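Record 1 of the preview.
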Amino acid sequence: MIILCSILFGLMLPAQSQDTIRTELGGYPVTAIVQDGDTVYMTSIDEAVIQPRKRAAAARDLRQYRRLIYNVKKVYPYAKLAGEKFGEVTAHLQTLETQKEQRAYIKQVEDEILKQYEEELKSLTLTQGRILIKLIDRETSKTSYEVVKELRGSFQAAFWQAIARIFGSNLKTEFDAEGEDKVLNEIMIMIENGQL
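->
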């Protein structure tokens, strides 16, 4: 306790000649403002997200909600990866001069992703695939169809859209945070804040 008081007192001495000081206290960055000889220490804290309480739901609804959480947790890393990779690829494509170099680069990245994630992605259920399509839109601000069209062309985008439609999905599905995907968005926020 004496050591802590001496540290705080030591920090306050040089502060009398300054208006604002920045230091570290207990491993945390601290800013202090000196005003009229008084020192006020300030720090910032993480944003707190408060979700509304869920009403007591029927057992069936609760099971569905828990299943949705499970599915979102399963596909979220892939959506995050897709967002990061899409950003990297589009940035790198700007540095390449010819279309031949761009196609070769896209093929190389595609092969790397397939080699690393193909078996895991094949094991996703149809529901998880639909959620992944929505989360990719959330992460990239582009539908999966637009991502494929931008990177592989219109023919490939139409081909994969046709395949998706056969299995009851739609690559043009958008993430609607305020509408039909409101619960999904709440789950995503809780996952991102470490609450789930």
